[in-house]
Design brief:
The complex is a heterodimer of chains A (about 290) and B (about 260). With about 290 residues, chain A is an alpha/beta fold. Chain A is about 30% helix and about 15% strand. In chain A, strand 2, helix 3 and strand 3 form a beta-alpha-beta unit. Chain B has about 260 residues and is an alpha/beta fold. At the A-B interface, helix 5 of A face helix 2, helix 4 and helix 5 of B. The complex binds adenosine-5'-triphosphate (ATP), magnesium ion and zinc ion.
């Protein structure tokens, strides 16, 4: 150990740990949606953020990568900024806020609005990887249910929602079936984002640090949100446009604007919002054709 | 025609001690077999062995499946046995809390086995659940209530509905009435007898209560110290017991 100053390995984690995580990732990619155990390490992260996603990022990142970090869709939260600067210093990577320029996107709670493309990697921070946990607390039993593909229990949860509320009330962490085989938690993203996972060209990796689990959805894999024939999955919808950029079809957050209870709805994806605003600003200034 | 269950030399050990051993029996479709004996005689162990709920066992247990194939249960994979649990067998526990999800509605409890078997139409699942609640005399307006709000008798009837909704061929019951008040017991036994008869179910029912055996079973098997000491038609066993132990058991009941 250095006497005066800690010397970090590239990407913070030591090579042996990275190899171990990569092995888990390879297995996860080979069995889409299957939770692979791994020996989670301590990583200095802001309170409440969790370390699983960061460990995955640390294991796959290289010096040529361009990293984007979002927290609930925003690049500019304290957490997103500090994780970006963490990797800029320990992995010497370039960072960006632009979805289309990033090679790795570390996310918590959102999938960017800008469609991802082949070659990109989306890394999700996962708090609770087991979708059956709240219905069946025994892990030996949930593991058996996955192994035997017995997912009736998950439908019981959806049944209970419909019986109580008249519709499936779950709007976050909405369960999905991956590759027609494994039931998977998409992490607490809004169900609005679920359709984006389906046959996405990007590689989607999921890390749960406290729970020591890694799982993956390889590019172009089917991801089906569960539902009944007569009560199919319905992602959330927003009727109004973003109050800042005017775009429609994106996920909106309600922002309180004054003490009198005034509020407005704005894009949760800050990169998408800024670029839409800039683009429409340019358009109205120059009056040229819309950008595809 | 072969029996539904053909059991030869079946046994199960806890460590070095046998919970039950050397059990031979045949169970035919539509037949109700009572297993009686005092506490600790191995009744529940035998039930657990037959239904494959306990680990590895001795002897052979052959089961004739709905498609006519005869399988040796000890040689089947866990997945195959669990498929039987889902689709061809039921298991009614003495304590309904062991067989129900106490924090899922009555409708969800009855609907779960259907969903486990691939039902994916909410309306049809609910309709089937409602139909079964009616059959076990649970008021329709309780369909969305949790079993925690039910009486003991209602819980047990709900557990029975949850087991019968998939139209099983064979149902195991371990002391299904003994946790209940006497008046509730009688009504439940009546219900069980009616359903078993209507559905033509084969049942293995464990009870320490000879009156229960008398009321619901065709044949009775008497156990002592893990072994079968006598078996035969229920009325014959109870009215004209051959084994000295059965005579004792019957007379002790008569004495009250
Ligand atoms: N899990 C276990 N581990 C060790 N021994 C057990 C276990 N379960 C039962 N036994 C023993 O096996 C024997 C048979 O028990 P079993 O529970 O089958 O009896 P039973 O006839 O169902 O009794 P009861 O009427 O009290 O329910 C008893 O000696 C019991 O102590
Ligand atoms: Mg018992
Ligand atoms: Zn916007």
């Amino acid at each position: 150990m250095s006497a005066r100053q800690a010397v970090y390995n590239i990407g913070y984690l030591d090579e042996q740990t990275k190899r171990m995580i990569r092995r888990a990732l390879l297995k996860a990619v080979a069995i889409p949606g299957f939770q692979v155990p791994f020996a989670s390490r301590e990583v200095p992260m802001p309170r409440g953020w969790g370390t699983g996603g960061v460990q995955v990022t640390a294991a796959v990142i290289g010096e040529d990568d361009v990293l984007k970090v979002i927290d609930q869709g925003a690049d500019d939260t304290t957490n997103a900024v500090s994780i970006r600067s963490f990797f800029a210093s320990v992995a010497r990577v370039a960072t960006t806020t632009r979805t289309d320029e990033a090679t790795i996107i570390q996310t918590r709670h959102r999938i960017p609005e800008t469609p991802l493309s082949e070659g990109q990697v989306l890394v999700y921070q996962v708090p609770i990887p087991e979708p059956l946990r709240f219905l069946e607390p025994r892990e030996t039993e949930t593991r058996r249910l996955h192994a035997l593909e017995e997912y009736g229990l998950m439908f019981v949860k959806l049944y209970e929602d419909i019986a109580r509320f008249g519709h499936i009330a779950k709007t976050y962490d909405y369960p999905v079936l991956v590759g027609g085989r494994y039931l998977m938690s998409p992490s607490p993203i809004p169900s609005f984002d679920n359709p984006k996972m389906h046959r996405n060209p990007a590689l989607q990796l999921f890390g749960a640090g406290r729970e020591k689990r890694i799982y993956a959805v390889p590019p172009f894999t089917s991801v089906e949100s569960l539902g009944f024939e007569d009560f199919p999955f319905e992602p959330q919808r927003f009727d109004e446009p973003c109050a800042l950029c005017g775009s429609t079809g994106g996920y909106l957050d309600e922002v309180i604007t004054d003490d009198a209870g005034g509020s407005m709805f704005v894009c949760s994806d800050t990169d998408h919002c800024e670029r839409t605003a800039t683009r429409s600003g340019t358009e109205s200034a120059t009056g040229t054709e819309a950008i595809a | 025609m072969t029996p539904l269950l053909q059991v030869r030399g079946a046994g199960h050990r806890y460590g070095l001690r046998h919970g039950c051993r050397d059990v031979d029996l045949d169970l035919w479709p539509g037949e109700v077999l009572a297993v009686v004996g005092e506490s600790g005689s191995g009744k529940s162990t035998l039930l657990g062995t037959l239904s494959q709920r306990l680990g590895p066992s001795e002897g052979s247990i052959r089961y004739r499946m709905a498609d006519g194939r005869v399988i040796d249960l000890g040689e089947e994979s866990e997945a195959a046995v669990r498929r039987l649990w889902r689709s061809e067998w039921g298991f009614v526990h003495q304590d309904p809390a062991d067989g129900l999800r106490m924090h899922v509605s009555a409708g969800g409890n009855v609907g779960e086995p259907l969903m486990a078997n691939g039902w994916r139409h909410y309306g049809r699942i609910r309709e089937a659940a409602a139909g079964w609640l009616e059959r076990v005399e649970i008021p329709a307006d309780r369909i969305d209530d949790h079993p925690t709000t039910f009486s003991g008798g209602m819980r047990q009837r709900l557990q029975i509905a949850r087991n019968l909704v998939v139209s099983p061929r064979l149902v195991f019951m371990d002391e299904p009435t003994s946790g209940l008040d006497v008046s509730v017991q009688a009504r439940l036994l009546d219900l069980i007898r009616g359903l078993v008869f209507d559905l033509g179910l084969a049942v293995v029912v464990v009870t320490h209560d000879l009156a229960v055996a008398r009321l619901v079973s065709h044949r009775t098997l008497v156990m002592k110290d893990g072994r079968v000491v006598e078996s035969g038609l229920t009325d014959r066993v109870l009215d004209d017991p051959h084994a000295a132990y059965t005579q004792l058991l019957v007379s002790s009941v008569l004495q009250g």
